[in-house]
Design goal:
The protein is α+β, with helices and mostly antiparallel strands and about 100 residues long. The protein has helices spanning about 20-25, 55-60; strands spanning about 35, 45, 65-70, 75-80, 85. The chain has two helices and five strands; from the N terminus they run H-E-E-H-E-E-E. The protein has a five-stranded antiparallel β-sheet with strand order 2-1-3-4-5.
Length: about 100
């Protein structure tokens, strides 16, 4: 069953805040994939990463929607409604993004 998202009106065109997870770059840590906040442009790491900075950003700011950012994945996720959302466009990467292999 697909849930509806009541937060798509807050999706903004944003400028990514960093060329990788902001907090991981500052601490020298690593990430698996990146997520981009479509309210403010914060770049954080996904929940498969050790620090889960994108979710931490949501909890701190209550910004509801992220974009799969690295690589650009073409999907959005609403934390509040726990559902995928259609994005009006994809955010271009600032690139090149550091790879953790």
């Amino acid at each position: 069953m697909t849930r509806n998202c009541d937060h798509q009106a807050v999706i903004q065109q944003v400028v990514p805040s960093a060329k990788g997870c902001e907090e991981c770059l500052a601490s020298g840590d690593w990430w698996v994939h990146l997520r981009l906040c479509r309210t403010c442009g914060h770049v954080g790491c996904c929940d498969d990463s050790p620090n889960r900075h994108a979710t931490a950003h949501h909890h701190a700011t209550h910004h509801p929607i992220i974009e799969g950012y690295d690589p650009p994945e073409g999907w959005g996720w609403c934390y509040v409604d726990e559902t995928f959302v259609d994005l009006p466009n994809q955010t271009p990467q600032l690139g090149p993004i550091k790879r953790w292999v």
